[in-house]
């Protein structure tokens, strides 16, 4: 047996000093040679545990073999058979805890860089559309109509799969562009918006109609949809409502939810103000409260917009941080400062209602809590002040109540999430399915896609009934 | 794209647009608002709904030229289009038979209050309306409001028309007159709503105001529009826009409305110099 190659091909990236001041993508992507070298490390093991680690069950060894052999159109075909959004997944999936974690080479510390290869194939396709020219086999129309609410990862995936099965699908999106969190939440430097748009366009090319500016629950209700010729509805509106700490001073000027800050910057392009009309304030000293990917995104946006000092303020220690290690390292390299075991007690304002500081506790870790992580406990008398003139609350999100509160027969949990079957996403309301963050609470892009995929299969079965 | 079916200049800096938006028209209720965006580079701003025609599939908005978006909007005419028109958002006005209701409108908010006064009247309330403007040439829709009110009082700050003074003066007189007032609804500039609430507070008359903070999405996603009502943080876009005026933390609202003053000025000046339009 050939010796295992444990030299994982590293990802070329913009230098930290340079990228900390621009919004261009940080990771630059493999060259053909790099992609083939990495693909060549895959031993094509017969048990392919990587597929079991993928929520949408991509034939990972299959597409990697095609890359190794230089047959990119075949690699595209294999990827897109299961995943309509490979350019997005290749960039933002936490492969290190999914397919790459189960790769047999992970035991040797050098799993195949599946995410980077997925990204390579997706980018190759966008650059070489004419070479792919897959004669699209149009599915036989079933004559059934499905309404998909929300055009984030869950909705796009459900819509694409249902369209591929011959159903007539319309997506209803509240915002003025499709893509949901992929557009408003994740910054350009981590997920370029033209890539999201290209994958949205691909879904539309399957025959999916996209109705923008339509707030389901306000502009049109779920029952209106069911009464106007849609035989099934998939709800994938995300968990759009921001959480705050509920501490004194939280409504001071200069304090943003991560949703607001990122929406202004990414969706409304405030980083190009005044060329674009939407402004955003940037402090000189910015405190971002939270330890997830969204906190890293907000901190790195603030830095790129010109903040002098940016702090991540997190109540536990680094090992408990939910952010991807890669994003944490990127943030650290760029100069983001970490204030760990630190939790705000109150915000301090001046007489004009502007934020000037944050009083924080030092924290220590106690026994593990329900999340399995050690519970952070404030140390009495440890209060100290961090001078900040801007803060971002990146504390997670909760479900937006607009749809549940306007839809009869749709049961919710006490957290406001919609009650749905864990596997197929069927809700308590006839002909209505749900998936993604609205069911699970804030989670990942790929888990939402997995939910969209399984719900689409269930809806298809129901419609063919 | 949403076509402008009709543009009317109500007074020099206040305009009416009738927009083709059948889905919004179908669901619109008094007190709700829309979010509009003119084009790709535009900002999303909230505007209250002044009227609608479900048959025609149209919605009427009335706005005053204040910032870049409203100045640009004022230049559009019948037949032009805007990129986005999203709604109806927010909770509808609470309409029931209260008894006698005083509707107070300041400035261009007369357009917002007409459908509310009409709905109150239809429910069998006695509607007394007060409308005020700085001067005669800024008054509009006197007849519209009059037609849905049992009594109409008009004020101008400078006395150039009708009664000289501000809206809180006749409001106070009504409260003192001994007539039983069951509810007051005050809509207009924030400072006017604050003083209406201050006027009614000693009389213990429930006073509803319609708040107008800065918004982005208008669907509860961003929290930009948060206000404090009775000590509790509320999102105006989904919990409002109408609240109990006696419970609103007005100073916080005023402060948060000023967050982007510098940027708003810069943006407007830049647009004016680029477009060759000077104030």
How are the SSEs ordered, and which strands pair?
The complex is a heterodimer of chains A (465) and B (279).
Chain A: H1 16-19, H2 32-40, H3 49-52, H4 60-68, H5 72-82, H6 86-92, H7 99-102, H8 114-127, H9 129-132, E1 145-149, H10 153-164, E2 168-172, H11 181-184, H12 193-205, E3 209-211, H13 222-227, E4 232-235, E5 241-242, E6 255-257, H14 258-267, E7 285-289, H15 293-304, E8 309-313, H16 325-334, E9 337-339, E10 342-349, E11 355-368, E12 374-378, E13 384-387, E14 390-393, E15 397-398, H17 402-406, E16 432-434, H18 437-440, H19 445-464
Parallel strand pairs in A: 1-2, 1-4, 2-3, 4-16, 6-14, 7-8, 7-14, 8-9
Antiparallel strand pairs in A: 5-15, 10-11, 11-12, 11-13
Helix pairs in contact in A: 2-4, 2-8, 4-5, 4-8, 5-8, 6-8, 10-19, 14-15, 15-16
Chain B: E1 2-11, E2 14-20, H1 22-27, E3 33-37, E4 45-53, E5 58-64, H2 68-74, E6 81-82, E7 84-89, E8 100-106, H3 110-122, E9 126-133, H4 142-147, E10 151-156, E11 163-164, H5 168-176, E12 183-187, H6 190-200, E13 207-210, E14 226-229, E15 232-235, H7 236-239, E16 242-244, H8 250-257, H9 261-275
Helix pairs in contact in B: 5-6
3D architecture notes:
The complex is a heterodimer of chains A (465) and B (279). With 465 residues, chain A is α/β, with parallel strands linked by helices. Chain A has helices at residues 16-19, 32-40, 49-52, 60-68, 72-82, 86-92, 99-102, 114-127, 129-132, 153-164, 181-184, 193-205, 222-227, 258-267, 293-304, 325-334, 402-406, 437-440, 445-464, and strands at residues 145-149, 168-172, 209-211, 232-235, 241-242, 255-257, 285-289, 309-313, 337-339, 342-349, 355-368, 374-378, 384-387, 390-393, 397-398, 432-434. In chain A, 53% of the residues are buried. The mean pLDDT of chain A is 94. Helices cover 28% and strands 32% of the residues of chain B. Chain B has helices spanning 22-27, 68-74, 110-122, 142-147, 168-176, 190-200, 236-239, 250-257, 261-275, and strands at residues 2-11, 14-20, 33-37, 45-53, 58-64, 81-82, 84-89, 100-106, 126-133, 151-156, 163-164, 183-187, 207-210, 226-229, 232-235, 242-244. In chain B, strand 12, helix 6 (190-200) and strand 13 form a beta-alpha-beta unit. The longest helix of chain B is centred in the C-terminal third of the chain and has 15 residues, at 261-275. At the A-B interface, strand 5 and helix 14 of A face helix 1, strand 7, strand 14, helix 8 and helix 9 of B.
